[in-house]
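Q: Hi! First time asking for a complex rather than a single chain. Here are the components, and I think there are two in total. Is that enough to go on?
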Amino acid sequence: MRRGDRGQIRIIEAFLAVVVIFSSLAISTNLTMTSHSVKRTDLESVGLQVMLKLDSEGKLANYVVSGDWSVLGKAIALVLPEGVCFNLSVYDNQLQRLNPDSISNGSFTSEDVAFVEYICTTRTSVFQCYILRLQLGLVVS
Amino acid sequence: MRKCHKSFRADKSGQLLIVAALAIAVLISSTTMYVYELSQKTGSVKSFSVGDSILALKQETNNAVMSSLVNVSNGGEAAVLSANLNELSFTVSRLRYSGMFRLDFALLNDSPYDSGIWISWNTQGTGISGAYANLTLHTNGETEETTTHYTINTTTVLALNGSYIALSGEEKLVSLTLKLDKDGESAAVRDCALFYDDGGGWLYVNTSENLSVFDFGNGTYFFSFVVTTASNQLSVIAQVHDLRGVYVEASTTCSN
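A: Yes, that's all I need. Here is the structure of the assembled complex.
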C-alpha cells in the first residue's frame, strides 16, 4: 500500500509538471501574437494620421486632382516617421486605378505590413471622391 | 515508533504538494490576468484606429457639404448637396479593408432651409449662404459596432452698412463697412465687387470712383468711393467670396 502511494504522488507530480509546461507554452504564444498585432495596429494608426494631416491642409486632394504623383509620394514620405516604407494606390469611386506607376519609397522588407484605406474629397465646387489605399511596413535594417 | 515517523513524513509530503499546487495556481492566474490586460490594451489601440477612421470620414463629409455650398451659392442647384452626399455615401460603401462603413444623411428642410441649403441675400444689409445636414455613420468593425450621429452646419454671413456725405453738385462720398463671418467667426474676404445704382442701372465701383479699401484684419473692411448721382437714396450691393469660395451678397441703402 505504501509503495502504491508513492507511485500515485509521482504521477500527480508528473501531471502538474506537464500542466505547468503546457500553460507556459500557451501563455508565451499569446504574448508573441499580442506584440505583433500591436505593431501592425500602430502602423495603421500612423498611416491614418499621415492621411489626415495632408488632407486637413487640403493638399491631398490637390495632388490627386492634379495627378502629381511624385509630389504626393514625397509629401507622404516627409510626414511618415523614419523607418517606415509605404506603397500608395489611388482609385476613383468606380475603383479604377488612377496612378499608372507605383507611388512608394522603397520595397517592403518586413512581415508586419499595415493597410490603410482613406477617402479623399475635393472642396471645390465640383465634388469628387477618391479612395487611397496605403500599405505601410517597417524597414528592417 | 518507526511506523509513526513514516506516517508523519507521508502527511508532510501531502502538505507540500498542496502548497506547490496553490503556488502554481497563483502563477497561472496572475499570468492569465496579465495576458488579459495586454489583450485589452490591444483592443484600445484598435478602437483608436476606428476613431481615426470616423474622424477622417467626418472631415470628408464636411468637404462634401462645403463643396455643395460653394456650388449652390455660385449659381448651382440646391439638389447638388444631396447628390454630393450620395456620392460620398456610395464611395464609403466601397471601402473594403478598414471595416464596413455606412453613411446615411438627412437634409434640413425646415424654414429657412430648403434641401439643406439656406440662401438669403436681402436688401437690409445682410446676406447668408448656409448648408445643414444631419449624418449617421454606422461602423461595423472586427470587434465592435458603432453608430455616430453628427451635424454639419456651415454658414457664411455678410453684413453691409453704409452712408454718404454730399459733396459739390451731385457728387457723394460713400462710406461702406463690410463684415464677413464664417461659422460664427470672423473670416477673410477672397474677393469683393461693389455696385451702386445711379438711377439707370447698376454700375461697378472701380478705381475711377476713387475707391479706397482698408482691411481691419478681423473680417471687417472699410470702403470709400465717390459717385455722381441725383438720387438721395443710394443703393449699394457687395458681392463677396470667402476663402473657401462660398459666394454671398448683400445690398443696403445709404443715406446722408
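A: Chain A has two domains: 1-35, 40-138. Let me know if you'd like any chain examined more closely.
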